[in-house]
């Protein structure tokens, strides 16, 4: 659904999307065309996107659950996912006063996004001998760059944090930098 569809001036040039999706795949489902497709999964997601003049904002929340048939013989796990993102690529005029600004800044762009996923076991049968899950991952990404007529540059940073609340594995943190 798009309450704003662009075209026009001011906020009338904005694009706004709102949506949702729902999927349910049964426990016994198998695909001949895509044998890697997971079965036993129920998923729902809500999302929105707002864009205007080179600026885009995205947000989504979702939940995935397995054991869609509520079998008492297998555990039920749930994953909650949330994501936010902001990207900006303003257009700088190459005429008039914008010409000097474009010579200095080029065509700049920056972005930031964050995501969190929390995977946990909701119910476990009495005679279950496997491991329960209580795991959270958080990811952050930042980027900054600019393009000129003959060259460009880019800097990126990403950080990942993984927390295991069951104590089965160590918590981890990974940082990554990219400069080109």
Structure description:
By secondary structure, this protein is mainly β. It is 5% helix and 56% strand. The protein is built from one helix and nine strands, in the order E-E-E-E-E-H-E-E-E-E. The protein has a nine-stranded antiparallel β-sheet with strand order 1-2-3-4-5-6-7-8-9, with no helix packed on it. It is elongated. The relative contact order is 0.12. The mean pLDDT is 86.
Topology:
Blueprint: E1 4-5, E2 15-25, E3 41-52, E4 55-65, E5 76-88, H1 97-105, E6 107-123, E7 134-147, E8 152-164, E9 172-179
Antiparallel strand pairs: 1-2, 2-3, 3-4, 4-5, 5-6, 6-7, 7-8, 8-9
In short:
A nine-stranded antiparallel β-sheet has the order 1-2-3-4-5-6-7-8-9, with no helix packed on it.
Which characteristics define this entry?
mainly beta, 1 helix, elongated, 180 residues, 9-stranded antiparallel beta sheet, 9 strands
């Amino acid at each position: 659904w798009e309450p704003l569809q662009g075209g026009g001036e001011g906020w009338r040039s904005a694009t706004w999307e709102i949506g949702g999706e729902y999927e349910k795949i049964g426990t016994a489902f198998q695909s001949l065309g895509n044998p890697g497709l997971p079965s036993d999964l129920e998923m729902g997601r809500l999302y929105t996107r707002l864009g205007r003049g080179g600026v885009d904002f995205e947000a989504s929340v979702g939940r995935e659950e397995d054991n869609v048939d509520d079998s008492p013989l297998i555990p039920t796990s749930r994953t909650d996912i949330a994501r936010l993102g902001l990207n900006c690529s303003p257009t700088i005029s190459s005429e008039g006063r914008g010409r000097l600004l474009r010579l200095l800044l080029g065509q700049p762009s920056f972005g930031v996004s964050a995501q969190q996923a929390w995977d946990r076991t909701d119910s476990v049968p009495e005679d279950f001998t496997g491991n329960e899950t209580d795991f959270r991952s958080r990811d952050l990404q930042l980027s900054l760059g600019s393009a000129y007529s003959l060259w460009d540059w880019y800097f990126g940073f990403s950080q990942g944090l993984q927390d295991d609340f069951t104590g089965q594995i160590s918590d981890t943190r990974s940082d990554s930098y990219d400069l080109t």
